[in-house]
Design brief:
- The structure is a single chain.
- By secondary structure, the chain is of the alpha/beta class.
- It has two domains: about 10-240, 3-Layer(aba) Sandwich (Aspartate Aminotransferase, domain 2), CATH 3.40.640; about 245-370, Alpha-Beta Complex (Aspartate Aminotransferase, domain 1), CATH 3.90.1150.
- Helix content is about 40%, strand content about 15%.
- It has twelve helices and eleven strands.
- Helix 2 (about 15-30) runs antiparallel to helix 9, helix 4 (about 60-70) packs across helix 5 and helix 4 (about 60-70) packs across helix 8.
- The longest helix has about 35 residues, at about 235-265.
- The protein is globular, with a radius of gyration of 21 Å.
- InterPro entries: DegT/StrS_aminotransferase (IPR000653), PyrdxlP-dep_Trfase (IPR015424), PyrdxlP-dep_Trfase_major (IPR015421), PyrdxlP-dep_Trfase_small (IPR015422).
- One of its GO terms (molecular function) is transaminase activity.
- Belongs to the DegT/DnrJ/EryC1 family.
- It holds the Pfam family DegT_DnrJ_EryC1.
Length: about 375
């Protein structure tokens, strides 16, 4: 079986490395938001060229705290995609603001500036733009189209390592957020995230919010209502080590994705790939579109290839968010993508033989469709 995600192939020495990290933490006696977190924040900020990296417990909390730190709350509207992971919408609601769902482009699955501009109102305070799968939204085009006082918050959970015109995803807008969930491009050994910004005030506010409203200098003195959203030392130590080798993992995943590209291009339109928006992409997931997704899934499963379906139901059609929906007719592309998208195995530890098996299975399916 070719697994969709294969942690052991990705990190074959993980068990030894994790035990060494745990032993060091036990000896030191520090486990939460101490020196390892500070060290990781410094090397992460340097890696992506940002003034601040503030580590938090998850990307979801990072998005929520970023909105709150920016003064966004009740009465404010935040534009966000109708097709993406739930955090983009739930963080807006948790901050007390109103999510305004906008349909995505069918070829990329991300927001485009023209659609966002149509959704602007006097109450719009921010656009929470989500990069998706292997693609980047054109944040530069968004910035040019938006009023200067509208914040751009990048959900870069799946985009670590990607660049747009030479700049790292996560640094393209006013604030960026990364996820270190184990399956993400820079994967941790538990949940984790980071807020990226050049804004000293926002960074300071997020640092305070993540730690019960304390400023990190005076304990048990709470300057504002905060949250328990701290990163642990074990995860931070692991992530430092993984960051040093991340470029190698990224290069391998890009090579696999490009090999898949050739099979998709040769399918005569039976299978459709994602428009990535940049040649410097970070393939968190390789997603194909098929009008016969169920049959494609059965075809691959029969050949020992695991797949995954992402976001089959658009966010505004889900019970948690239906009260903010403008109605299904407003999100035709999100609904189409939810019915057609299928993610293929993509892991830096995949062998050339496994990659070839996936490609041959795709060619078999495409050839059968053409005939």
């Amino acid at each position: 079986m070719i697994k969709y995600q294969d942690f052991q192939r990705r990190y074959p020495n993980a068990q030894t490395q994790i035990l060494e990290i745990l032993a060091a933490r036990v000896q030191q006696g520090d486990f939460i938001l101490k020196q390892q977190v500070q060290n990781f924040e410094q090397v992460l900020a340097t890696k992506v060229g940002a003034r601040h990296a503030v580590c938090v417990s998850s990307a979801t909390s990072g998005l929520t705290l970023s909105l709150i730190a920016s003064g966004i709350g009740p009465g404010d509207e935040v534009i966000t995609p109708a097709f993406c992971y739930v955090s983009a919408a739930s963080s807006i609601v948790q901050a007390g603001a109103t999510p305004i769902f906008v349909d995505v482009a069918p070829h990329s699955g991300v927001l485009e500036a023209e659609a966002v501009v149509r959704a602007l109102t006097p109450r719009t305070r921010a656009v929470l733009v989500a990069h998706l799968f292997s693609g980047l939204a054109d944040v530069d085009a968004l910035r040019e189209a938006l009023p200067d006082d509208v914040l751009i918050l990048e959900d870069s959970a799946t985009a670590f390592g990607a660049r747009l015109r030479g700049r790292h995803a996560g640094t393209l807008g006013d604030i960026g957020v990364y996820s270190f969930f184990p399956a993400k491009p820079l994967g941790g050994i538990g949940d984790g995230g980071a807020v990226i910004t050049d804004d000293d005030q926002v960074a300071g506010a997020v640092r305070m919010l993540r730690n019960h409203g304390q400023d990190g200098r005076r304990r048990f003195y709470h300057q504002r209502l905060g949250y328990n959203s701290r990163m642990d030392e074990t995860n931070a130590a692991w992530l430092q080590a993984r960051l040093r080798e991340n470029d190698l993992h990224l290069a391998r995943k890009q090579a696999i994705a490009k090999a898949y590209d050739e099979a998709i291009e040769a399918s005569d339109g039976v299978l459709l790939g994602q428009h990535r928006g940049t040649p410097d992409f970070s393939p968190h997931a390789y997603v194909v579109r098929s009008a016969e997704r169920e049959r494609l899934t059965r075809h691959l499963t029969a050949r020992g290839i695991q797949t995954r379906v992402h976001f089959p139901v658009p966010l505004p059609e889900q019970p948690a968010f239906v009260q903010w929906s403008a109605g299904p007719a407003h999100y035709p592309n999100a609904r189409l993508l939810g019915k057609q998208c299928l993610a293929l195995p993509l892991c830096s530890g995949m062998s050339d033989g496994q990659v070839s098996r996936v490609i041959e299975a795709l060619k078999e399916f495409s050839h059968a469709e053409v005939i």
